[in-house]
Design brief:
This is Uma2 family endonuclease. InterPro entries: Nuclease_put_TT1808, Restrct_endonuc-II-like, Uma2. Residues 27-174 form the Putative restriction endonuclease domain. There is one protein chain. This protein is of the alpha+beta class. The protein contains 6 helices and 11 strands. It has helices spanning 5-9, 27-38, 59-78, 130-137, 174-181, 186-198; strands at residues 18-20, 43-48, 51-56, 83-85, 91-93, 98-100, 104-108, 117-122, 141-146, 149-155, 160-163. 24% of the residues are buried.
Length: 200
């Protein structure tokens, strides 16, 4: 079996580390902790209903989220879809008692209160329910990448539903997308992806 690009560079590594605080924190206490964490590169902090999770990011995690972002942005450009990349900018709302950073995020068409599409790469399982964070802000679509598989959730107005095709990008072949993300060569992935898009 051909190794993926991530496996070639960092073979058999799964070393994102998570720590969930054993006690609930107020929003003010969280903000103080967030300020401290901001001075420590390589750490990510999430908050929901008083519970705080701190996570380190492995090189494999960063590689996957970069490849996913690259192919998504390539698709937007090839299809002339106006988008505004928002990256991992912090999304937070004190009234909703939530704060988190997606791995990648995009406004489609125009800027709004929150991005339309968010991407989350999960290398290590467990911890705070990731989808619950997005639900607080009703972000239209969330793509999870876990165990070399992508799962797409679309906001229905009452909750998230797992879907087989993106409602935001209905012409995107998600099987093709997943295959290209896992290819051992980024150059080959780009060529195959663009060729398939242009032949539609």
């Amino acid at each position: 079996m051909t190794a993926t690009l991530a496996q070639k560079i960092i073979p058999n590594t799964d070393n994102d580390q998570k720590f969930v605080f054993p006690i609930s924190l107020t929003w003010q206490q969280f903000q103080t902790l967030e300020t401290i964490i901001a001075e420590m590169p390589g750490l990510r902090i999430s908050y929901i209903d008083g519970w705080v999770e701190i996570m380190t990011l492995s090189e494999r995690h960063e590689l996957l989220k970069t490849i996913i972002g690259f192919l998504l942005e390539l698709y937007f450009c090839e299809k002339d879809i106006e988008c505004i990349p928002a990256g991992s900018a912090t999304r937070q709302d004190e009234n909703q008692a939530v704060s988190f950073e997606p791995d990648e995020s995009y406004y489609i068409g125009s800027e709004k209160a929150h991005p339309d599409l968010a991407v989350e790469v999960a290398i290590t399982s467990g911890g705070i329910d990731k989808l619950a964070k997005y639900q607080r802000l009703q972000i239209t679509e969330v793509w999870f990448w876990e165990n070399n598989q992508r799962v797409v959730y679309h906001w229905s107005g009452e909750g998230y539903e797992q879907v087989s095709r993106s409602a935001l990008l209905p012409d995107l072949d998600l099987e093709l997308f997943q295959r290209c993300v896992m290819m051992p060569s980024l150059t080959a992935a780009k060529k195959e992806f663009v060729k398939a898009i242009q032949s539609q």
